[in-house]
Amino acid sequence: MVARGEVLLWRATRAPEMCMRRFSDAFLEAYVAAEGEALLGSVGAYRLEGRGVQLFSRVKGDHFAVLGLPLLELLGFLRERGALLI
Description:
By secondary structure, this protein is an alpha+beta fold. The protein contains 3 helices and 4 strands. The strands form 2 sheets. Strands 1-2 form a two-stranded antiparallel sheet. The longest helix is centred in the middle third of the chain and has 11 residues, at 25-35. It is elongated, with a radius of gyration of 17 Å. The chain starts with a strand and ends in a 6-residue tail after the last helix.
């Protein structure tokens, strides 16, 4: 979402699909131990940009939306408004 004051200028909602793979309790324990407290700062307790990618067998949709922001669309909006160089 981009706003100026109380005026909404841009908004995008995306729903990527993520399919979690089957894994053992030992894998999960090792994953949690390796990631430690970093998981607490991550929505869903995984970090797709790190070891968390190993939790999934498939991710369909915008990778950046999974991380929390449809970045490519936002950059397009900012270019259209002249906020970024074309």
